[in-house]
Amino acid sequence: MDADTVRSLARELEDAERQRQPIEQFSARFPGMTIADAYAIQRAWVNHKIEAGGQIIGHKIGLTSRAMQLASQIDEPDYGTLLAHMLIENGAEIAASDYLVPRVEAEFAFVLSSPLVGPEVTLDEVMESTQYVVPALELIDARIEIVNRRTGQNRKVLDTISDNAANAAIVLGSERRKPHEVDWRWAGALVYKNSVVEESGLGGAVLDHPAAGVAWLANKLAVHGKRLESGEIVLGGSFIRPIPCAAGDVIRADYDALGDVSVLFR
Predict the structure, then answer these.
(1) In the prediction, which pLDDT does 69 show?
(2) Nearest to 80 by CA among 112, 118, 53, 49
(3) Do the beta carbons of residue 98 and residue 215 sit within 8 Å?
(4) 96 with 102: CB under 8 angstroms?
(5) pLDDT at position 76
(6) How, if at all, do strands 130-140 and 167-172 pair?
(7) Which of 17, 167, 203, 234 allows an S-S link to 80, with CB 3.0 to 4.6 Å?
């Protein structure tokens, strides 16, 4: 894609978010689109947010489960950017109408104490460079339609990547743990929707260890001459399927000794 097209599509994403109206899938409109094009659109959208006063606070990793990769016809995760306005206080009440298709996922967030520079970052290096790990909820959304309005086809990973890997907001728990204090493969949560267990999972469902996704991202960013910075939050990837939400829903993730993380949709 040429630069003008990339910028135009990024503006469409911004308009979709502001107007709460999903736009038609980019992959359907541009059959020759590539993953590189999708990330270029994502970067242009992030740049637009920064120009408007936004601040990068970290990154998210998605499509970390093998089942989701097969369904999306991709053989690796994807990633997006976390911005300061996306950070929601634990237990907060938020408006469902602020989002198009709100869904919630459960995962672990790694807060870095030192930079991670690829291309050969290992899981052990991630653990050594992590200040603490905290349980989290990620609110995902779809500014690009999930089902094509004309063809009935599901969106492709190209659309999800363009759409900032579907990220909309994050909620961090209050219990912080040193990276070697917990076996993160066996740490997990029961996730309740309106007091009913909707989903459950363990950190090991994320690439066999949630820190593995952080290493993958550091190495992936190195291709573009970028790195993970000290102080950044990195969401390691969800260990449950997305839970649809609407006004009146309460989502609570019980992480046992790691505490609860919750959000109320009004």
Answers:
(1) 63
(2) 49
(3) no
(4) yes
(5) 76
(6) antiparallel
(7) 167
Which amino acid is present at 206? V
What is residue 63's predicted lDDT score, i.e. its pLDDT? 84
CB atoms within 10 A of CB 185: 16
110 close to 130: Cβ distance less than 8 angstroms: yes
∠ CA 245-77-221, nearest 5°, is: 120
**What is the C-alpha separation between 218 and 261, in angstroms, rounded?**
27
Q: Where are the alpha helices (DSSP H) in the chain?
A: 3-19, 26-29, 35-51, 66-72, 123-128, 157-162, 210-222
Taken in order 128, 135, 181, 209, is the CA torsion positive or negative?
Answer: negative
Residues 188-202 pLDDT 10s: 999 999 999 999 999
Task: Give the mean model confidence (pLDDT) for residues 166-184.
Answer: 97
pLDDT, average across residues 97-107: 97
Mean pLDDT for the stretch of residues 1-15: 97
Write down the pLDDT at residue 135: 98
**Three-state SS for 22?**
coil
- Decide if pLDDT at 71 tops 60: no
Residue 3 amino acid letter? A
Residue with tokens 């190195």: 222
Q: How far apart are CA 87 and CA 143, in angstroms?
A: 19
Q: 261 in helix, strand or coil?
A: strand
Task: Please state which of the ranges 61-75, 221-235, 246-260 shows the lowest mean pLDDT.
Answer: 61-75
Say how many C-beta atoms besides its own lie within 10 A of residue 104's C-beta. 28
Q: Residue 50 and residue 32: Cα distance in Å, rounded?
A: 29
